Amino acid sequence: MQLAAAVLAGGLAVTACSSLQLGAAAVTGQSRITSATLTSQVANLNAAYRTDKGKGISPQRTRGQEPQQVLTWLLTFQIFDKLADQHGISVSSAQVQHQLAGLKAQAAQQKLNVEDYVSAAGAVPPDLVPQIGRYFAILQAFENRLDGGKQPTAQAAQSRLQARVTHAQCLAAKDLNINVNPQYGAFDYGTYSVVPATSKLAASSSISAKPTPSASATAKPRLTPPC
Description:
This protein is mainly α. It has a single domain, classed as Triger factor/SurA peptide-binding fold. It has helices at about 35-55, 65-85, 95-110, 115-120, 130-145, 155-175; strands at about 25-30, 30-35, 180, 185-190, 195.
């Protein structure tokens, strides 16, 4: 598993503030991500950045977009939980810990702890490290189901596998009927990320073994699901 900055999450077009539950940063199905939760996790990420800076570690993500980056992560977790539910996937604590052990090993190679590693590389608040482990475990279990547990080595096979994962991710996000509070941005289905509402930047933060980052100063956000 290779750590990479990536864009992950899903959602629908921005809706009017009146359609969102009071105090919500985003609404997903019958649940919501509160503005208080988002604010708290953004503060955690910024605190991690200060710690990283003290250790000479530079964040690899765009600064100034922390709310969008963190909200992308919070939605990503819900999307992959929905994907797991749709496909009857259940992951154990042992599977989650296995994924976290892999992250810790990668961090150790850089002489970092896992919290410094994921915050600097992927804009992940340290408090969300356990959820990262669960996300990876679901992703791995789903890929194993698609390819019979055999990791494809040929580029064409890898591309086909990624396309199937992306399609399933899209269907899960669509089923959640996500609405993002315009105060925090809009959902871009082209990059599966929350993007600033006043910007056409299609960039955010995530960590994944498979998806890759996408950022363009000229690309218009895709506000409808392609699936």
